[in-house]
Amino acid sequence: MAVCVAVIAKENYPLFIKTIPTENELKFYYTVHTSLDVVEEKVSVVGKNNNELRELYLGLLYPTEDYKVYGYVTNTKVKFVIVVESSNTSLRDNEIRSMFRKLHNSYVDMLCNPFYTPGEPITSKTFENMVLSMM
Amino acid sequence: MESKPIVTYHGNQVLFSSLRSIVLQGLPKEPAEWRRSYGRPPKSVNLEASFVPYDEDILPEETDKTLVSRPYFHIFWTDCDLESYKQTVREEMAEWCSGLKNHNIPDWLIVVVVTDETKVKSKLLPRSSVIDKVRSDFCGKQPDRCFVLVEPLKSDPKSAESWNTFFVRLRQLLLQAYGRHLTKYEDNMRGLREKRNEAGWNFQEYFLVQEELGFMFEMMGLYDDALIQYDELDALFTQFVLNHASGVTVEWLLTLIKPCTSWAGLSLIKPIDREKRDCVRDNKASLLEFRNYLFSRQCAILFLMNKPWEVVQRAIDFFHNTVQEMKVLEVQIPLGGLDCWVFLSALEVLQHCQKQAESVQNKSYSLYTASLWDYACRKLRLLGELCGLMPNQTEQPSSEQLSRVIDLTSGMGIEEIDPAVTQPRPRDKLREALSSRESFQKIYLELSELTMGTFKHIGRFRSARLLGKDLAHFYMQLGEPQKAENFLVDVEKSYHQEGWYQLVEATRLELANCQKYIGDVTRYVKTACQVAGSQTLKLSEREKHMTEVLQIADEHKADEPITLRASPLFFIVESSVQIKEEKVSLDEKVEVEFVIQNNSPFSISCNKIWLTLKSFKPDQNVMEKRAKVINQKPNVFRTGSDASLDKQVTNFKPVRRQMPSLINLQASIEGTKKGIPSLCGITCVNTHELLKRADSAGGSIGKQEPVKLETSNILCLENVKLQQADNRIRFMGQAQEAGTFKLQQVGIQIQGLEFLKDLDVENYITVGTEEPYCLIQPEVILAGVPQEVVVTLHTGSYSIPSTNKLVVRESPDITVDTGSHDKSLVLEKTPKETSTKMKMTIFMETRANGPEITENKIVFDCDWLTRPVIAKVQFLHPFKIEHHLRTCKERKFLQIQVSGSSEPNFELTEWNLIATNTCDVDLVPHNFSHHKLRVNKHQLASCIWQIKPNIQQDIDLELQFHMMYRCLESGIQTVNDYKKKQHVIHKFHLSHFQTLYTAHIDVTPKSEDKVCKIGSMVCMKLHVKAMENNSISKDQNLIYEVSADQSMWGLYGKTTGTFSLEKGDYSTQMNVMPLLTGFLHYPKVTISKYDQTASEDIWVKNDNENQEQEKQDNCQDFSESFTKAAVSDVDNPSPNDNSPAKTKESKLAAIIAFKTGQVYYSSIGQQIQVYPENASTDLEVTVL
Q1: From A11, which residue of chain B is nearest by alpha-carbon distance?
Q2: I want to staple B612 with a disulfide (CB 3.0 to 4.6 A). Which of B18, B745, B954, B960 is the partner?
Q3: In sequence order, what are the beta bridge partners of B299?
């Protein structure tokens, strides 16, 4: 399904990045990093409009020839980015949404761990397994 | 689209041609509302039409499925009169009608043009006009099919109204016609679509059918609906492609996926490319051609809708989608063909949109063009790589690559030439780019710059930086590493700021390669160290760069060393810093230990590792502050999620200086020190850091480069091998200088490289400078007796090198005996911080008066010290000698009183009093002359002499009291040799002591029984008599003053009075009243000299003199001499002038007291018994 799942802190540094073809990991790092441009663009546009509850799911951030990059921003401005292959046409918007929801839930569970300091790289095995299940 | 719905005209051709232009202009002037079937919302449409002459042959058949070329409506125009109607027109009309009816066409209208209005109105009879005839003949059931147009060529309101009504009617009828046809057509089309899964169904056919509908909508100006048709087609096609990919093969698709030989780009020059359409119709188009056509149509409609940005937005999806389709359908295409197509198409879209969108140039537009530019840019680069056009000095393009260029160029197709477009077509551009390396480079750089500019314009800095990285790579290949470096540094900086360390390190690796290429050793070494110290990069890369660094280090051995920051390669674990002893004294060993982490890929031998100590001024404030900061845990933290990253880096502020992450707060209290504080609160200590301007001033983000500190206080280790990971380094050294030192900097030298690290630790080494000091015990020494004392010398920080001397300096009143002739004490070799004890004897002369305890200093000269050592001693003087003059009429006695002040007993012997200045006096002792007196703290001794002057004159006496003393206490450490008697002298002076006057007071009750009762007046008599031998003249003015305790005596009458003793004596009396019962002392009388002429000066002088004298002769002379200003209310002429300030003006009368013994008060001790008023048997007695 997804080829790359990333969790990015409020300050835009990576908390967790998992990619499936691990040998070209760096390529996804670049992709995810660049996608932050669009995330911020979308968040700032929403912020201007009203104070109403913003939808967390940002939708397709930007497509490339081979990949589609989707974004999600929690209320605490933690960003989730999921990269899927363009050729994978079975994944519709709804599936992506549910993936993000799952990721968010798992992230919140992980955050509830009192031994985890928010802002530190995520090392939780449970979280990692959940992410792997989406890939 | 140029074509318009077709309307035919018939009848009077001349008439219509005169009206034609009005009709053509008038019809689209106002919109008509079009209600639509299937619940679609009504639309307002501006109708247009093109008129063609009627011909029965062009009438469509019932089965005809065309939409666009179909004549929709038919109008018969006539302006004939009744006659001609009957003769010809009617027949013509009937033929026209029947022709339409044959084709089952209900959409027609007969227009009767009336030129003469009167004709219409004047006809009284019905059915007599042409209109009536037409109506009755043709429009019996449909009266709205006949219309009367009045005076169409006139411009009066009536004809205009007539036109209006005509247009409204025409629009309505036209829409009716359209609606019916469209409904029929759509039904038909839907039916066709339902059959799509049946065998033999052809997409191309269906495509044409739905496109026809699209054309129709477009023709009607309903662009939205037209676009929907194309979008539906697009979606349908995409679905087929997906199905095909998943195995559901359809026949018609096979022609599309034939191996692709042409990758001509999208062309947007013409709204409809008829050739392409024919291709599609004939099922000859390839996938790319079909897609090109479909997208060009969509674009054309979007341009009509004036939405160029949507074109751009759709373009990206379109390219990605098409590329995916090509892949999914496994269409064979030569390598690079697809990239050519994307590049050409993207450029075409951009070029075209730029033209279209000049008016709506805004940010939202750039938002899409940016990624399109980016896409094109990437494709061009890819092509460049495929065709060997990337700059690379060593390799020429291979023959394979050259032939690929030819293939690709030929596959781009032949471009139609549009004279309106002056810009070079995308195809020309690509051809040029592929023609040579130079032109490729030019075009690629141009494109990249444009893309980057667009990204920056819309605030996508990350994308811009990523592109910068690609550009850097290109420049590297181009052999211009200087340009590449700038890009890479930017990229690295931004990654670093955002905390993407993997990316930072990947970039650093490139930067290192780049800088190595440039040959800038300093910068290269810096980056290379970072690479070598990286934790994520490949080991091989790290090793390569580390070897490189070591090589450079070796090369620069002889040169000025290159200073670097230690942190990437060597990490000093600040928390591991240990100082063995924080307080040492001079010359002692200093030991500091810490851990250096070697992050390089292998162990490194260092020439030198040193630690710089910085002298730290023990400023009390700073120390206190430091203590405060340390003790007072800061209450408020602003913790960033990551220490290196304090501020979110937004798109719009790409570079920001880091803020301190800690807000230091302290309690602050303002107000008086003792009192209640007036203001309490917390203050921020590091406001200057926090509130510093972050935008421009000094806003460099890079940390400052370390500067090597030059100081003499260095701890150094040589030739150390630093293993990988942790190394515990221990520095040893000697404290050579006193003071407090802070650990300042660690340096590591490897040949020609120096790695520096400024330590930020609160560790201090204090090198002690404790001064030596001497203590003398016992602390309090008895003066007047030689005593043995113990001298304790504490060496402090200075050891005594070898046998040495401590020379005691003697002071005048202190005698010291050390046992050696030069008053020195011999010292052994003594280490520092120890003490040594010596004995010596000390003696201080005592004196008869003065304070009990005196402090003195004893100075020791030390050879090994620059300054002498001073010891403090306190001496207790054992005696205090006082003298008192006693008088009995004219006889004089002198009492000497010796009081002790020390605990031990002193024996006094051989005391004697002598007058040193005269022999005219006999001093008669009234003592047991050989009696030994003992004196101590609790016991005093007295002896007494009578003074008998041999002459009448007043004499001054200089007297001396001698006595010998001996300490009896064995506990006192006295030296035996000195245990002999010591001698003390008390000298004093005596004058004017002879008695001049005798004053006598007598108190006698007035009552008969001679009993003094309380409350009854008593007579007090004062009698003053001059002594016989009085040498003072008898006319001396005297004054008496009576004073008494007011609770005892009430005084009545004059209490003060002046008198003189001209007759030898003087008596006065006054009334007094006892106020208490019991034995009362008589009221006190004082006789003084009274000098009426004395001036103020004298008085003051006298006063001063007396005071001074009193001070000086406190012990020697006990005369109670005092002077008073005249305060008497009797003798002073003005009673008000008794304040000192006012007496300045008047003459002063001075009262000068006599010295002790000059006046003898004979009744001074007398008392009188006072009884209560009502005498009873019980007496109340007050004993005073």
Answers
A1: B648
A2: B745
A3: none
Give B583's strand partners: B766
Banded pLDDT at A129 (limits 50, 70, 90) = very high
CATH code of the domain made up of B6-196 = 3.40.50
- Can you list the pairs that B1092-1100 forms with residues at least 24 positions away whose Cβ atoms lie under 8 Å? B1092/B1037, B1092/B1147, B1092/B1149, B1093/B1147, B1094/B1148, B1094/B1149, B1094/B1150, B1094/B1152, B1095/B1147, B1095/B1148, B1096/B1143, B1096/B1144, B1096/B1148, B1098/B1150, B1099/B1123, B1099/B1125, B1099/B1148, B1099/B1150
Could you tell me which residues come within 8 angstroms of residue B632 by beta carbon, excluding any fewer than 6 positions away?
B666, B667
Residues of chain B with CATH 3.40.50: 6-196
CATH 2.60.40.1230 spans which residues of chain B?
Answer: 879-990
Instruction: Give the distance from residue B336's alpha carbon to the nearest chain A alpha carbon, in angstroms.
Output: 14
State the number of CA atoms in the 13 A half-sphere of B763 facing the CB: 24
Answer with the residue of higher pLDDT: B694 or B377: B377
Domains of chain A with bracketed CATH: 2-133 (3.30.450.70)
What pLDDT score was predicted for residue B364? 65
Alpha carbon distance B432, B423 (integer Å): 14
- Tell me if A36 and B641 make a contact (CB, 8 A cut-off): no
Q: Which CATH superfamily is domain B879-990 in?
A: Gamma-adaptin ear (GAE) domain (2.60.40.1230)
| Domain B770-876 top-level CATH class | mainly beta
Q: CA of A76 to nearest chain B CA: how many angstroms apart?
A: 12
Q: Give the one of B320, B327, B503 whose C-beta lies nearest to A63's C-beta.
A: B320
Percentage of chain A beyond pLDDT 70 is 93
Smallest CA–CA distance, residue A80 to chain B, in Å, is 15
Q: Choose among A11, A65, A86: nearest Cβ to B499.
A: A11
Given CB atoms, is B316 within the 8 Å cutoff of chain A? Answer: yes
Q: From the CA of A127, how many Å to the nearest CA of chain B?
A: 20
Looking at residue A102, what is its pLDDT?
Answer: 92
* Best B323, B455, B460, B646 residue to mutate vs chain A (most A CBs within 10 Å): B460
pLDDT band at B1125 (very low <50, low <70, confident <90, very high): very low
Which part of chain B has CATH 2.60.40.10?
770-876
pLDDT at B652 over 60: no
Summarize the confidence of residues B81-88 as an average pLDDT.
Answer: 79
pLDDT at residue number B1181? 63
Q: With an 8 Å Cβ cutoff, are A11 and B327 in contact?
A: no
Residue A104 above 90 pLDDT? yes
Q: Name the fold adopted by B997-1171.
A: Immunoglobulin-like (2.60.40)
For residue B298, is pLDDT > 60? yes
Helix ranges (DSSP H) in B387-436: 399-410, 426-435
pLDDT for B971-983, tens place per residue?
555 555 445 677 7
Q: What is the ipTM of this complex?
A: 0.90
**Residue B693 confidence class, pLDDT cut points 50, 70, 90:** low
Under the banding of pLDDT at 50, 70 and 90, the label for residue B655 is very low
